[in-house]
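Onboarding guide, step 5: your first structure request.
Type a short instruction followed by the sequence, for example:

Predict the 3D structure of this protein.
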Amino acid sequence: MSASPTGLMVAGGLVAAALVGLVFLARSSWLQSDTLKKCVVLSVGVHLLLAAVAAGIGGMRPASWGTQDDGRMTMMVVLTDEPVDEVSSAPVAEPALSDDAVEEMASADAGADAAVPDAEAEVPSDVTASEAPADLVPLLEAVASDVSETDASPSVDDALADVLDAGAEEGAALDAPEDGASEDAGNAPTEPPPSYADRFGERRQAAAAARGGSDATERAVREGLAWLAAAQSANGHWDADRHGAGIERSIDGRDRQGAGSRSDHGVTGLALLAFLGAGNTPQVGQYAETVARGVNFLVDRQAANGSLAGDAEFFAALYCHGMATIAVAETLALTGDPTLREPLSRAINYTLSMQSPATGGWRYAAGDAGDTSQLGWQVMALHSSRLAGVAAPGHTAARAWSFLDRVSTGQAGGLASYRPGERPSVAMTSEACLCRMLLGMDPAHPAAGEAMAMIAQAPPDAAHPNAYTWYYATLASFHVGGGQWDQWNRQMQTAVLSLQRHDTGPLQGSWDPDPVWGGHGGRVYSTALSVMTLEVYYRYLPMHAKPGGQVAAAAAGDGRMR
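The system replies with structure tokens like these:
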């Protein structure tokens, strides 16, 4: 095939221009709205470019079989009896460019999207001891020393597995089961794990009093739960669309196309978590029947691949799966119901299949580079599952650490952004701090202090409600403890309590959807998150406290459900 110098120059110019254009689009938010239409436009443009390049290099002219392009050509066909290797004639399907793939090209870290290794691939080599829990650092440093001396290549996955097999401390990693839980499917927990024990009876009252709760916060919780119970549908779910979900507000310039109107499984999971946080299970509590119907709804409609997202839209699906999975996991941990173990195992397997083996993150589709918001819900799901006795493989935690390192900034690494390279925010810093503590970071670590300093600069303000940010900031601040928690708690109570509806009528006890993410989740979302924020005093044992401390000693009883 021949090509003229002029043709090559034209083709090279077109290719260079196209590359510049694609880089510009990849760094802009153009593809985040009307994605399908814009994909069609790009596809047409790419094909026209290919045609122009082919013309430029002579590809539209017939190639010569010899050294001359003019004159008559002769082709000889030779027949032979020699055998030839068989080659499959089946056509090879070319993968189609999905909406999510295009959206990810436009928004994700370019280096992370360059290649997605096989699901069994090792954790990237840049996962170092600095990303691991403090009690794993000596082991990882020793592994690094061994590698330099022996040229061996043990992975971080292997190092984590060795530590966990040796009996790492409780909470050090996602696959280290807590006391009271077991990885053996035949030994389901029969009483709540220590982290959940303060939700019941007099322990709940003692924990609320000792950790900053009040009569006002408990009254708000009771009224919020009453509204949620009344809003439940007959078949056990909460209808997101019926309660105002699916309103698109294009937060930060991102159009998620009205995601949320079909997020019934997600808001059902959140509502259940609010009831579970106050000591209600399918077996005990004022709202036992409410919880039982809600859990049955989620489990009965679990997809064959393990997803608990239901019919949620693309942008909401993995959020819904994570929220619903946490609810099922907490129910199993609190009740030991053996019928929930298999659904939870399938749900966790789906969660694992959605994690990017390249970056350790989660986003909308399997293998996406990830964002901190999605990671928070999935890490909490994996943590809750571990407390229920269904553990994840060791490499899952290592990969999550790797992603957190990608989005972290600040002198101590305590600040975090939505995605790598973006500016840190209070919401993502709070969520990342919580995730690091769930993965084993000491609440006294300087990174936690740096996160708390950023949170303190943006106290809750009733004039600018944000249930999502307040929920994660409250959890992170509570687990770090100290004077910053006392200050945040006072500010949080003032804002959250003032926003609850106290007028008589069908909305009494609920919270209006906030102007940030409330439009996507609706009233059930805002109410459930607000209730859980006010339950923080007893939903979990604070990570800075030790089991058997002053609160546990002051509470009567042994922590069993009653």
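Each response can be followed by summary notes, for example: The chain is about 50% helix and 0% strand.
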